[in-house]
Amino acid sequence: MKLKNKVALITGNGNGIGKTTALLLSKEGASIVGTDINEKSGKQTVNEINNQGGDAIFIQHDVSNDDNWKSVINKALSTFGTIDILFNNAGLFIIKPLLETTIEEWNHLMNVNVTGTFLGMKHVIPIMIENKGGVVINASSNAGLFGATGLTLYGASKGAVRIMTKDAAMEFAPYNIRVNSIHPGYIKTQMIEYAAKVANKEPEDQANFVPLKRLGNTLEVANMVLYLVSDEASYITGSEFVLDGGVSAGQSVWEQE
Ligand code: ADP
Q1: How do residues 68-117 score in pLDDT, each as one tens digit?
Q2: Angle, in degrees to the nearest 10, between helices 152-172 and 116-131
Q3: Residues with CB under 6 A from ligand 1
Q4: What number does the ligand 1 atom closest to the CA of 14 have?
Q5: Active-site residue, 154 included
Q6: What does the pLDDT average to over 122-132?
Q7: Is the dihedral of CA 217, 44, 225, 232 positive or negative?
Q8: What angle do CA 134, 121, 5 make, to 5 degrees?
Q9: Does residue 257 register a pLDDT over 80?
């Protein structure tokens, strides 16, 4: 087991990548603090973990709320004593033309995706400094790497997460704290179902854009997170890891079968 005696805090643990990662890190021995704004799905993940012999607690939590973070930290520390791993995974997704995006939508998504990631690091890193080490993974996206129609707001938020990750990696390297970002794209989650709906397509149709000609699955992303938070990745910090089946590699100059 790669994460024996480690405590991992995972935000947005109720669905998709957050859920699969919580289950995987638990299988590798970590105690899990799962948080989500959605109590039902977040609790369900934690119940699955505990039914499989893992050790997990759920705390309902809005990542954009500073006071909520304070209670999450208190509960995590009173239950498990520390936090070794932070996965800032909770997030919102929207596809909308720039001119139709409202200021309310802009502020809400930025608050969750950007401020939520900032607050996660702000509240957890002091514990890691005390521990003389820790690992943070911030969920960006391949949309944080290049432009896309309809993704001005989402892409801006994920671009911000990408750079915040590098800044924090620099700032906390002296404390043996590693900070890296992951950049998934075209993963089979609620997000891809929504994206397909907007485009009037089936989720699997989205695979046509992908050089590997299939959607990714959440376990493929969770495996990357597991690697990055394990000691196997001990020399990796300030780096970005793309999991998008080759979409961001470049442009095709001819049609491929
Ligand atoms: P992904 O593709 O990253 O897996 P999902 O939409 O499936 O995306 O999961 C994102 C998770 O983040 C959901 O469980 C959702 O309830 C959670 N979430 C959304 N907003 C917040 C928030 N403000 N605070 C905490 N969790 C949130």
Answers
A1: 999 999 999 999 999 999 999 999 999 999 999 999 999 999 999 999 99
A2: 20
A3: 11-12, 14-18, 36-38, 41, 61-64, 90-92, 112, 187, 189-191
A4: 14
A5: yes
A6: 98
A7: negative
A8: 30
A9: no
